[in-house]
Structures are given as C-alpha cells and as structure tokens.
Amino acid sequence: MSLRINSFEEYQISYEESTLNPEKFWGDIAATFQWNKKWDTVLDWNFSEPRVKWFDGGKMNITENMLDRHLEKKGDQIAFYWEPNDPNAKQKRITYSTLYHEVCKTANALKALGIKKGDRVCIYMPMVLEAIVSIIACARIGAVHSIVFAGFSSTALADRINDAQAKLVITADGLNRGAKKIHLKQMVDDALKACNSVTDVIVFDCINCNADMLEGRDHDYTTLIQQMPDTCKAEPMDSEDLLFILYTSGSTGKPKGVVHTCGGYMVYTSYSFENVFQYEENDVFWCTADIGWITGHSYIVYGPLLSGATSVVFEGIPTYPDSGRFWAVCEKYNVNQFYTAPTAIRALMGAGLEVVNQYNLESLKVIGSVGEPINEEAWQWYYDHIGKKKCPVVDTWWQTETGGIMLSGLGAHSPMNPTHAGYPLPGIQPVLLDNNGAVIHENDVEGYLCMKFPWPSVLRTTYGDHNRCKNVYFSNYEGYYFTGDGAKRDRNGMYRIIGRVDDVINVSGHRFGTAEIEDAINTNEFAIESAVVGYPHAIKGQGIYAYVVVNDANQTTTEAIKNALMNSVTAGIGKIAKPDKIQIVSGLPKTRSGKIMRRILRKIAEGEKTEFGDTSTLLDPSVVEEIVNHSI
Ligand code: WTA
Description:
alpha/beta, 30 strands
C-alpha cells in the first residue's frame, strides 16, 4: 500500500476510512515501515487521563527507517544540500550513505561519553549538517534529544537543561547570522553555571573563534567523531519510548517540555510530508524553518528522511546578503516544494517584485505556509509572484503538540481558499466547541478548535509533569484535546484559523506566553509590575506591547529604564522576545479582586481609545484613561 493520496476523491475515501476504522487505516500505513517486531495493538487511548499509545508492543528504531532502509536504492542520492549563510562560502552536500556513516560515528561518540538509552541530550546548534547528524545520532542510540533554538538566552537554555536534566550538551563555538556572528559557546558556559546535570559538552567549530574549552568537560566535535567506527547498531525502541522533548510556551508558567514518542511520530511525519507536499522521487524540498522549532524537527529532519527525500538546509536568513536570497536558493537547487512562514513572505513582499523577478522560480510545484495565520494580501502575493499562479499554496495549521500538519491542502488536489488552512488530513478529527463546551455541528460557524480523536503524533505528556499536560490540553473540554486556537468553519467545511484564544502570542511565527515575558521584565530592578499583550503588526503578525509600572526613586530617564527592561527580556528569553513597545504606566487596570484586565490592554495596544466594553468591574477607571492618553 502506498502512503500517497493522488486526487481529492482519494482524499475523501481515505478520510472516511480513517474515521470509520482508524486502527486499520493507521495499521496499514505503519506496515509500510520497518519494524523489528510488530505491534500488539494499534491504538489504546483515553483523553481524560490522558493516555495515548500507538502501535504499542512494536519495536523499531526511527533512524533505521530514515537511513538504513534507503541505503540499498538511495545510498548515493543527496539527502541534504547545505547552503551556507555566506553565498560565496562553500556549499556542502551529503548523500544518504555518508549521512548514515556520520550519524553512526556521532552515535558511537555519544556512547563513548556514557550516553545511554533514555538519557537526555540538549542540542543548541546553528543550522549546520552536524546539528542534523547529532539529532539522528541521539535517536540511533535511544537518547532523548531536547533541541533549544540557538536564539534563546543562556537563562532560557539553563531552564530547559535543568527541566530535562540533560547529561550532555551539543553546541558550536558560534553561529553566522547574516553579517553577524553570535558566540554560542559562551552562552552555554554561562548556562552551565546554573546546571549540575551536565557532564560533557561537545563543541562543533562553526565560526572558528577559538572558544574556551574546559578540560575534561568540553570536547571538540570533529576530533571526537573522527576516531569513531562508522557503523553503530540501532537501539531497539518500543513504539512509545521517548524520541524527543521540545519546549514550547503556554499561557502560564515556564515553557513546558512537549514529549513525542517513536512509533506514532514516525508514521505521522512521513505520511503528512508526502501528502501535503506531494513530494515525488527526485524532487528537492526546502523548509526554511530552524531545527529549534517543531517545523524543523518534523519537516527538515524526520519527515523528509523517512520518505527518502532530498532537501535543502539553509544556514542563513532571508535578507542576507539581500532580500532575494530565498529566491536565489530556490533557483540554485531547483527547489520543487518550498515551505516558509507568513512573516518571511510579508517581509520579502516589501522588497518589491524587481527582486523576485531576477530569479527563475520555474521549478516550484507546491508552496507552503506555516506558523501563524497568513493574511490575504500575503497569500495572494505568494500565490501570484512566487507560485506564478500555478503552484498550490498549502496553508498548514499545526502545533508543537500535534507533531505534524493537521489541517492543510494536499498539494494541488484540494480546493483552495486564501487564508483558509482547509480540510483535516486523514485521521484528524477536528471539532469546534462553543462557549459552553458543546460541539457545533453546523457549518459557517466559529468556535474553539479541539480534536476529538487521537492521531499518531499527538503529544504524550509534558516532561516530568503529566498533570500539567492534562490541565493545559485535556481539561478545558472534557474528552477533547484543546488546541488553544479559535477557528471558523466555512460553508464548505474548510477551516480558517483565527488565532490564539489564550495568553499565547505569535511573533514572527514564534510562540511566547505573555506571562513568560512579564516574568523576564519583572526580574529588572525598575519593574514593580507588568502586563504584556500582543497587537497586530504588519510584518511580524503580532508585536509585543508591554505596560510596566516602575519604581524610579533615582529619576532615571524613561529611555534608560526602557533599555534596561529590554535587556532583561534579552537576558531572560532572548532577543526574539524583545517588546516592540514599552509603555511606562503608573498602574494597571485591575478588577476589584486584583485581576489585570488584559482585554482592555489589548484594545489599547490595538489603538482603541474609547470603546472598552464592560468596565464596571474596574477598580480605578482613571488608570485606563491615563494609559490611553499616553499609549504608543
Ligand atoms: C499558530 C508551529 C494559522 C497557531 C507549527 C498554533 C497557525 C501555533 C498556523 C502553534 C497556520 C501554526 N495558520 N495559525 N497555518 N500554523 N499556527 O507550536 O496559533 O510553534 O496554535 O507550531 O501557531 O505554534 P507552534
């Protein structure tokens, strides 16, 4: 049986089969992979606990499915083209066979450092092939990787290392980001002052900056790997053994470690990759995400390799050396499927058509969008000028927690409607719930987006705290997985995501909890109290607006205070979370019971001056007036 759907009719048939008999549907798909031992049961689940097990009793190793399985036929096929940050630097390419041996060498190095099945390994790396090799090497020996985006600060890194109790960190001396170089190793050294679980650090030399090495703890990647044998037996894993942890932000508290397991994640990322992008033999796929986010995990590393694809890995940024870089790379590698975020599309739109028109984009067949709602103007520009009106736009809605794409067109087979993610993939059963938690059955409605049935790559738990998983995702609406998003369903049953309905904001496709940013601001000595909200931003989708009550005994200038507050966010989370606007206020609008009325602050951030709805519970209405008068 093939994984591939080849028409909308086939999609409809598959969808029906997947809901009528999910176990047969997913069992047949799982059977196309390589298992050491077949599963006992396809699915065992209960959303109330929550408990979800797919292919339980099955034994496998995901890396044998990504590499070994392809070697005979595809050993010499390119797995990745690596495009460096500097277009004049040397590009690299790696075949399936070389990738296999590099992974095995790295896996042996991890073993030599005492890393065993179940141990956690933190990966804090630039977009280099060695990062991908490291990820797969962990999976080879059953170590659980926790990748931390290299734009996070040392404090954020330390939090994640400590939560996962990682034994090993794999990093680089630094990274190239456009014209800048960022010294990663220093951040790791700072982080490790606050971590005692880490015994070893492997450092890849990426920018040649002679990073300080701590004798006994730090190892040079290349030297260490060189001496290792180039084959390594894959660790047999249970389907439900942990594959990785990935931290993501929620409404409250520190980011939580979303846990994905081996069997289901394997089946779903490969299935969704092939169907959404309609990848065909010899195509070149390019996902511009960073490996530090779920999109990079599922559609740079796992999905494409499981499907035996050839992909591009890009070290740089869309605007370096100029805003034509994405299109130059598409032309250079004859990219067939291109997958990026609306924020990048909006930024590149601004550069004008002259830039785009310098490049030949004939090779493109499918163009994708991910990470945030795509506005109509950006959708149309992408469709007209990048896809030249002949490539379907797949607007893929999904989440760190869902592991893979949930709502999307399947290449050219599905009907398209700008700004609508569209229909659920086979196996995905979305529902919209109303304010009372009742399912809305009609079309042309709006509600809270939930899932009523498990799919193979649903998160299994939040690391170290199962109750948190239950409370955040499975308790708002008993018996359902709650996504945190609001959505519309149009007359034809197509879904359109409205956005988050909780205190999560989406800035350039990056997820932050407003509470997390407030916590970072509040560490500053000037800050007494703060409230952060999102507001519409032309390029980033949402911008960050912070209202801060400060203690200014020394009459410091407002500019200096704002800078200090910004620095606290950079230190606590990273530059990516820096507020776009900070307003110093004398008080925050609160209810008599002391709750901050964020609804009002959101309206002010959107530019509203008078209409705030019901304000009868406000303790001191004059606070609102003052904030409005000085809003930015
Ligand atoms: C948002 C990224 C609209 C949504 C894969 C979701 C989207 C959050 C889309 C998850 C889309 C993602 N249209 N909104 N196509 N894709 N989102 O965990 O709010 O980084 O809940 O996963 O991004 O972000 P995350």
